[in-house]
Amino acid sequence: MTEMELTPKKELPPLYHDSSFWGMTVTQFWGAFNDNLYKQLVLLVCAQQVLLEQTNDKQPIALAVFALPFVFFSGLAGWFSDRNSKRNIIIGCKVAEIVIALLAMAAFFTGHLLPLLVVLGLLSTQSAIFGPAKYGILPEMLRDDDLPQANGVIQMTTFVAIIFGMASAGFVKQAFPGELWKTSYFCIAIAVIGTIASLWVRKTPIAQPGLSFRWSTMGIDSETRSLLLKDRQLLNVLLVSSVFWFVGGIIQPLVNIFGIGQLHLSESRTSLMAACMGVGISFGCILAGRISRKRVNFTLVTVGAWGIVITLLAMFSFGWWWPAESLERLKETDSSLWNSFIPESALEWAARSVLTLMGFFAGLFVVPLQVELQTRPPKSQKGRMIGAMNLINWIGIVISALFFQIFTVICNLFHWPMSQVFLALALVILPIALFYHPKDEALAHESP
User: Fold this and answer.
1) Calpha distance 168→104 (Å, rounded)
2) DSSP 277-302
3) What is the dihedral of CA 224, 226, 228, 233, to 10 degrees?
4) Which pLDDT score, from 0 to 100, does residue 196 have?
5) Dihedral sign of CA atoms 192, 193, 195, 199 in order
6) CA distances from 206 to 84, 137, 220, 301 (A)
7) Alpha helix locations (H) across 176-210?
8) Contact 47, 256 (CB under 8 A)
9) Complete domains list, the chain, with CATH
10) Which of 7, 172, 208, 230 sees the fewest Cβ atoms within 10 Å?
């Protein structure tokens, strides 16, 4: 198979005719779907315990369990991806996903939260190792000026997988009450499909064979730190990216509690609100890739930031001023899962519409940042830079779990609706909209 050979960039097929690119797209899509289907199932189990057993919300614990492996292993994974074949790492991670899906089945059989959290930690460890190879291989196997559109597709499919994996969780939880282990059959099949797709990813040169291990590799190694200190543009992109994921880390559990606890929606309806963000993100990422063409278009970051601020303020206003429907009435409308697709109130229509727009602006926001992080570092440091990006992003997500817990305590203490948190998040993004305006950068047809 010709994909198995090292292909000079001048001989590459057009992006959308490149089977290697589509193999990478398919394998990462189903991996992200599996991750977030399982994670959302665990979060819904935690949210349900709050309502039924009046216990403390364990969602922040679950989110921290998912995030911490990215903090601990992203630097190591970046070093590993620069030292070894990224293609082999991708295939190995997909095989590990099959094993973890089998362990998830056993965890659901137990009916206890602790085994579910252990498997969640294993799943996030596998994803932490996969990330630097996934994003690092793109600039190695594609032309630089194809990267905006390639990242538009990759980011779109990633976010769609994240959101629809979350949305599917609400449906399968209602479809298999007390038998969540049955979802593992689906997860195992998805992992097998992803493994097969990974075989289409072509080989690329190893970035830095024999790269020595230092303890600083577990975080951000000295070469990467030096690069970030010299290149403030790259450092600013990393920090802005981390803020974005901090906000995203809070929005996921916030939408769950906002839907189930404040609006009294069913689990399937709450998951569909999150899915609306996926629809918006898909359009935003594709549009960002097409508009950017052969440059890193930072104007889109500004437009996206303002859009996120406005939609967060709209969600805040819905929760504060608009009364929710009664729990009993909405339970009756959910006698059929398919009825969940049709909003039952103006508030539900409005929330889904605004979350779709929020996702659209998030897609515009994130694609230029990702392209900049792939193209700006030297070839020998791309994997470690992606590892550093994952590390800093997930530090933001870990901090978001802590802040979500603090916001929850404050809202409960003062009897405020949880929608107040949307206002706080808008204030976090506002400085980026006001002050972060770097110039666009042109991209070469070939890598330097």
Assistant:
1) 16
2) HHHHHHHHHHHHHHHHTTEE-THHHH
3) -130
4) 95
5) positive
6) 6, 10, 20, 32
7) 183-198
8) yes
9) 14-199+215-442 (1.20.1250.20)
10) 230
Alpha carbons 267 and 21: distance in angstroms, whole number:
35
442 pairs with which residues across the strands?
295
Among 197, 133, 136, 131, CA closest to 158: 131
- C-alpha 261, offset from chain centre: 24
| Tokens 């991209």 sit on residue | 443
Which pair of tokens denotes residue 155?
């980011």
Query: What is the phi/psi pair of residue 315, to 5°?
Result: -65, -40
Closest by alpha carbon to 274, among 351, 189, 192? 351
Distances (CA, A) of 298 to 144, 148, 152, 366: 17, 12, 14, 10
Q: How far apart are CA 118 and CA 116, in angstroms?
A: 6
A 10 A CB-CB count for 232 gives 10
The CA distance from 88 to 71, in Å, is 23
**Under the phi-then-psi rule, with left for phi > 0, alpha for psi from -120 to 50, and beta for the rest, what region is 84?**
beta
pTM given for the model: 0.76
CA distance 416 to 421: 10
Q: Which residue is it, tokens 């973890």?
A: 100
- For the record, the structure tokens of 402 come out as 């802590």
Beta strands in 174-248 (DSSP E): none
Q: What is the pLDDT of residues 257-285, one digit of tens each?
A: 888 777 777 777 887 887 888 889 889 98
Angle between helices 232-257 and 222-230 (to 10 degrees): 100
pLDDT, average across residues 401-419: 85
Q: Are 359 and 163 in contact (CB under 8 A)?
A: yes
Q: Which amino acid is at 191?
A: A
Both tokens of 250, joined, read 């809070």
Q: 337 near 177, Cβ under 8 Å?
A: no
Q: How far, in Å, CA of 71 to CA of 218, rounded?
A: 9
Nearest in space to 422 (alpha carbons), one of 434, 407, 437, 409:
407
Q: Which residues contact 371 (CB under 8 A, 6 or more apart)?
A: 147, 148, 151, 292, 296, 443
304-344: per-residue pLDDT in tens?
999 999 999 999 988 666 554 433 444 434 545 566 667 77
- Write the DSSP assignment of 381-411 as a string of letters: GHHHHHHHHHHHHHHHHHHHHHHHHHHHHHH
